[in-house]
Structures are given as structure tokens and as C-alpha cells.
Design goal:
Layout: E1 5-11, H1 18-26, E2 33-40, H2 46-54, E3 60-65, H3 71-81, E4 86-89, E5 95-96, H4 100-111, E6 115-123, E7 139-140, H5 142-147, E8 157-159, H6 160-163, H7 175-184, E9 190-201, H8 211-225, H9 230-247
Parallel strand pairs: 1-2, 1-4, 2-3, 6-9
Antiparallel strand pairs: 4-8, 5-9, 6-8, 7-9
């Protein structure tokens, strides 16, 4: 059985956190993985840090880009070079619990659903759990994701032997949502694992916390990527704004 897992990790000025992220991958109970790290034109020591780790870890494949192209294009470089039976994503400042991969594969095998995702804990930059855990719904459909993207990059896990490779739309924001929706157009739903299996680090300068700045990108996504009507876009935007507020209320 081919159980190789391809892990896509974009980096940009992540020298402060990338060691912890890689450490959590190397600690996985499922050891048959490849980690495709794509550096998106970092100006700090990220490249040097990753290259040093690569000297002792043959399962890491490093792709340093010469200039900053954005997270969508960086992730797509990883997707294109992925050779695993499964594909998953882990940003350069997030952390997996040791059984994340094994539990995701087991869930796919038990449910027969080729797209699963997990709940996660939320921490600040110092890994202090100052926010409540984010518990995902057990099932999400295409329309559910339009209302609120409850599938985060750090726990999305896709059986690409079944669903095939798809690429993120090359837009500034919501590119992960665009990929999930492509898969959810082909299957009834993705399956959510209620037990937290990762730690999402909320950065102080994270754009995802500033909902006002994201409104225009969300609207453009509905209209230009998913080609929804104005009425449909307004309907889903209202849901998205309300659920986004509720997600970070504590």
C-alpha cells in the first residue's frame, strides 16, 4: 500500500518558528512522509535554517524561490512536486500533534471519505493557549465552506490518489478556500475530526485577524473565482462576516 504523505509548507521569513514546525513533523508516528518546503523569497535566515536541517533529514525537499510570489504560487510549487498518495498542508509557524498523520489516514480508511480535516488548538506566538480550541463540524459541504471556511490549512488532508491533484487559485487571499471548494464540487462533503490534532499559532500581525481588510477579498472571491451572482455573494458574505466574528470572540 502506498501510504506516502506529501506535506506542503510555504515559508516566508519564518526562521523564528520553522524549527518547531519541522520538529512536529519529524515526531509523527507515521514516518512515511515527504515535506516539500517552498521558500517564498525570505529576507531573514529561513533558507539557511532549512538547508541546515536538510543535511540530516532526507525526507525534506527544499525549493527556494528567488523572489516573493505569494502563498498560493508557493503552495502550488509544492503541490506540483508532490509524489505522495496523500497530500496535506502545514504552514511554517504551526504545529502538529504526533498522531495527526496517522489519525487522518485512519479516518479516511474508516469513513471512505477522501478529504478529512481536524479540530485544533489556538495559541499566541509563545504557544500560550489564550484562545478556546476550534472544534470543527463533523461534515462540511460546498455551501458550508462558502458561508465559513472551517477547514484550515494546517489540518486539511486529501487522498489525492482518489481525488487527484488540484491547484490553488493564484489570488492574494482565500486561496486555500478555493482549493477546498474544487474538491467539494466532486464529493458530497469533507469529514471533520472533532479531537484537536494541531496547534494554530495566531501571529500578532496576522492579516486573517483583520476582517475589514478581508471583506474586499472575500467579495472578489465569490464573484471572480466562484462566479456567484451579486445576490448569492451578498447572502454568503453575511454568513461569513457573522461566523468570522464568532470564531474569534474568545
Amino acid at each position: 500500500m502506498n501510504d506516502l504523505v506529501s506535506i506542503i509548507t510555504p515559508t516566508h521569513n519564518s526562521a523564528k518558528f520553522i524549527k518547531e514546525t519541522i520538529r512536529s513533523v519529524r515526531a509523527q508516528t507515521h514516518s512515511h512522509w515527504e515535506m516539500l518546503i517552498v521558500d517564498d523569497g525570505s529576507s531573514d535566515d529561513t533558507v539557511e535554517v532549512v538547508q541546515k536541517i536538510c543535511q540530516t533529514e532526507s525526507r525534506i525537499k527544499f525549493f527556494p524561490l528567488q523572489q516573493n510570489v505569494g502563498p498560493a504560487k508557493a503552495r502550488n510549487v509544492g503541490i506540483e512536486n508532490a509524489s505522495g498518495n496523500y497530500m496535506t498542508f502545514l504552514d511554517a509557524d504551526d504545529i502538529w500533534f504526533p498522531d495527526f498523520i496517522a489519525n487522518s489516514i485512519q479516518t479516511i480508511q474508516q469513513t471512505g471519505i477522501p478529504f478529512v480535516f481536524s479540530s485544533y488548538r489556538r495559541a499566541n506566538e509563545k504557544l500560550e493557549f489564550v484562545y478556546s480550541d476550534f472544534i470543527v463540524p463533523q461534515k462540511v459541504t460546498y455551501t458550508d465552506i462558502l458561508k465559513s471556511n472551517s477547514i484550515s490549512c494546517l489540518t486539511a488532508f486529501v487522498h489525492i490518489e482518489v481525488l487527484g491533484k488540484k491547484f490553488m487559485p493564484e489570488i492574494r487571499k482565500r486561496q486555500d478556500m478555493g482549493l477546498w471548494l474544487q474538491y467539494l464540487k466532486e464529493i458530497p462533503f469533507a469529514y471533520g475530526i472533532q479531537e484537536p490534532k494541531a496547534i494554530y499559532r495566531i501571529r500578532e500581525n496576522s492579516l486573517s485577524r483583520n476582517k475589514k481588510n478581508l471583506i474586499k477579498y472575500q467579495w472578489q472571491f465569490y464573484r471572480e473565482v466562484e462566479k456567484l451572482t451579486i445576490v448569492q455573494s451578498a447572502y454568503y458574505m453575511l454568513h461569513w462576516m457573522y461566523r468570522g466574528f464568532m470564531k474569534y470572540r474568545n
